[in-house]
Design a protein that fits this description.
single chain, elongated, Multidrug efflux transporter AcrB transmembrane fold, 71% helix, Alpha-Beta Plaits, two-stranded parallel sheet
Amino acid sequence: MDIVGRRNWYFLLSLAIILPGIISMLFFGFRLGIDFAGGDQFNIAFKQPTSAAAVQKEMDTFNVEATVQQAGPNNVLITTKPLGINEETAVRDDLNKKFGGTVASSAFVGPTIAKELVLGAGALIAIASILIVAYLSFRFNYKFAVCAILALLHDVFVLTGVYSILGKIFNLQLGEINTLFVTAALTVIGFSVHDTIVIFDRIRENLRQASRLTFEQNVNLSIIQSLARSINTSMTVVFVLVALFLISPQNIKGFTLALLIGIVSGTYSSIFNASPLLVVWRRLDPR
């Protein structure tokens, strides 16, 4: 199996997947969730234990975009896009009638707070990337670090591009960018780098053995030796995520889908992008 020899085909496939997403991000942007766009937040107290899932199901009947989180046995936190007076009154009355719920407190999440969340999320991803470069440069060398970051960027662009298309072009709530999406993105970054390091470590071990193989052949051999492990590990996670996606409530599906896309993309980029990029760099700079 000559993976490295066919690297240009894999690079083209990556480009074909990423390009539509980049175009969507440039021209349409993202569908921001309440966490980033701002909205109303209500702490609802109930007379008896009530699940967030039951309240979420009831909110969906109003065709109101909302996320519901459990805040205690008898409390839930509801966050919605800004509601009109009539909408808010209807929601309050319905929750009181169905569950005996009353508003314990309410607040407005303004654009300023939302902007701070966006900046904070961007800073987290930037810091994580810098730490990864520093670690890989120390563990291997800067060429390995740069190739790992390029593979990581591939995964980030795939993930954000798909969500831009889902949220803005198809107008699906599933494609919202919120704090759960950021959590998923950071998890994907960690997984992608972990998978890449496994293959890089195999490359280093094979190079140390000073075999008669060329650098390109060593890289290809290392990928093949790590292939089964990488795919098997990823598939076990994918099966769990698919099951979780099918049974999870609407407000969790976006998070699960982001993890699913990221894991598949991370496995692909670790095998077909990161290591072949090392070969390309070695050809351009044999030192």
